[in-house]
Specification:
This protein is an alpha/beta fold. It has 10 helices and 16 strands.
């Protein structure tokens, strides 16, 4: 990486190199001991203990599954840096020496990397706090993987103050190599609305279907019809996804059941598009149900809103990060992603930036396993770039 001769940049780079081995050690401890959403007690303890060891005064939140702390130097703005801590119900198949010790639970989304990166950044920022004016709020958040997400709880509890001036976060990505970060100004992560459809009919023996009101045939028709919402009722210039993830009905092959249930998710960067989908799903399911002599109960759960990266803050961060590592480390993303993040709740409260941290290894074979995969193995050297990203953001916004 290209290092600027600026004294502060040189100092930051030196500190990152010093702290990196400790950040890797912390990441591996967290990786070996993953905790599902809402159960991040031991991870929060580790974070709390480390922050105290480096001279900070952390606080617990949300039944001790969340931790916050501040690094303050004089009067000025408040900048929040956030990392999520929860793992996924996936059995690890990486073969790493520090693989998960918990059966069926794994840090398959890289939140162990996120947490270790922010801990490393906290150490750096605490050592260079004389170089900025204001307050850095460190947020270690639980429950990003399960709606409605831990961000809402922290906002409602006041742990994310209303006077926060800017917020920053990152997510590991195999779209980019280690040492790179991906930036997308404006709309990036999608908003989500989840839905359940319960079709109620009348059961009967498979040998006498005429005595039934078959909910399975009706549900199958609904699933097929709903696919036209994107292909025939949405502009090709409006990214949108409708996916059916589960369908459940019946107990035996020769029994027509009384009901069928299927569940799906809507994703778009447009709130208007999501609202339109909700309206049309209700209409289509009820009309199809009527035509099959069944009834349909349709329910929705609004999950995460679309995210928006503030253009001015994105530009300022780009300039600040380039002063540390040069323009070659920045990748401008042309298109938004259809992933979703509860980080967007913070962005509804204050301008913010959420970046893509490259973790694809350089110079060695990549196994091709992305996030939410049992074989996901991010390159740990990306922790350096992640630390630098947090530090660059805080120093730029508080200079």
């Amino acid at each position: 990486m290209k290092i600027s001769p600026d004294p502060l940049s040189v100092k930051i780079n030196d500190l990152i190199e010093q702290i990196y081995p400790e950040a890797v050690r912390l990441r591996r401890i967290i990786h070996q001991n993953p905790e599902l959403s809402g159960q991040e007690y031991e991870t929060a303890k580790l974070v709390y203990k480390y922050l105290r060891e480096i001279g900070l005064k952390p606080d617990y939140h949300l039944n001790k599954t969340a931790v916050t702390s501040v690094i303050r130097n004089g009067r000025g703005k408040t900048v929040a840096l956030r990392a999520d801590m929860d793992a996924l119900p996936i059995t690890e198949e990486t073969g790493l020496k520090f693989s998960s010790c918990k059966a069926g639970v794994m840090h398959a989304c890289g939140h162990d990397m996120h947490t270790a990166t922010l801990l490393g950044a906290a150490s750096v920022l605490n050592r260079i706090k004389d170089s900025f004016n204001g307050t850095v709020l460190l947020i270690f958040q639980p429950s990003e993987e399960v709606e409605p997400g831990g961000a809402i709880g922290l906002i409602k509890s006041g742990a994310f103050p209303g006077n926060t001036n800017a917020v920053f976060g990152l997510h590991v990505s195999t779209d980019h190599f280690s040492g790179e970060i991906g930036l997308k100004e404006g709309a990036d992560y999608a908003g989500i609305v989840n839905f359940d459809v319960k079709v109620k009919g009348k059961g009967a023996h498979g040998a006498t279907p005429e005595k039934s009101v078959d909910p399975i045939v009706c549900a199958a028709s609904m699933v097929t019809a709903l696919q036209t919402l994107v292909s025939r009722e949405t502009s090709t210039f409006t990214p949108a996804i409708l996916s059916i993830g589960t369908i459940h009905a019946g107990t035996l092959r020769n029994i027509i059941p009384d009901q069928a249930l299927f569940q799906g998710t809507l994703r778009s960067h447009s709130k208007e598009c999501l609202h339109y989908f909700v309206k049309r799903i209700k209409e289509m399911c009820r009309q199809i149900a009527s035509s099959y002599r069944t009834t349909a109960e349709v329910s929705f759960q609004e999950s995460y809103p679309p995210s928006f990266n503030d253009p001015e803050i994105t530009t300022r961060f780009s300039n600040s990060f380039s002063s540390l590592f040069g323009n070659s480390a920045l990748v401008q993303r042309e298109k938004p992603t259809m992933y979703a993040e509860d980080f967007s709740y913070y962005q509804q409260k204050t301008p913010g930036l959420y970046i893509h941290l490259g973790v694809k290894p350089v110079g060695r074979k990549f196994n091709g396993c992305g996030i939410h995969s049992s074989g996901f193995t991010p390159d740990e050297t990306a922790i350096k770039t992640g630390i630098a990203s947090h530090v660059a953001f805080a120093c730029e916004l508080l200079k």
